[in-house]
Amino acid sequence: MLDISGAPYCKGGVMASNAAFRGSLSTWKRRVEDWVRRLRPQDLLNVDIVYDLRPVHGDTTLAAQFVEYAYDRAHAEPVFAKLLGEQMTTGNPFTVFGGFQLENGRLDIKKHGLFPIVATARTLAIRHGIRERSTRARLERLIALDIGGEPDMRAMLAGHTMLIGLLLAQQTHDIYAGIPVSNRVEINALARDQQAQLKTLIKRLQSAPDLVRDLMFASPATLGQ
Questions:
Q1: Where are the domains of the chain?
Q2: Beta-carbon contacts of residue 37 (< 8 Å; ≥ 6 apart)
């Protein structure tokens, strides 16, 4: 029903129809243990999705227990979070003249914009014991703990809001136009100021992997001091 309504099946196969993503609580715990100990790059491709898990049906206490276990184990293995951070490279979306490299006039703003922000927030949350699941809540918690410069975190928050707005507007337009929904935004359809803001943001996000490396072992400030 979701696929028919426009939320397509996961192309990576991260669905209950895939046996690799089914299992009892003990099975899932063993999988997490395997991920954080073996540290194989191929294991990390879909692991990060687990740390955004929200139960929507059934016995939600099982999901809560699993999430707590997954966060505890990942937090206890710094190299695991470090490797997650190293998966953030998305390539250079700019031409030699500083313009966007477009495909049919469009830019994948999930890949070049939302992904670096979401991955930064998720990786630092895992490393610093933050249990929030949404990107906004994670960034706000990092700010509260004084991890990373507040201007950088605030810029990511504002950028996240802008990118979500652009993406939803494009997808709404495409649905009414009979165009398959995607993560690509038609750049020339944006106002000049929007294009400028988007370019500034994505240029800034090119340094997100460096920011994560710098903050991986930062010491949270003691609140209330």
A1: 1-76, 91-225
A2: 77
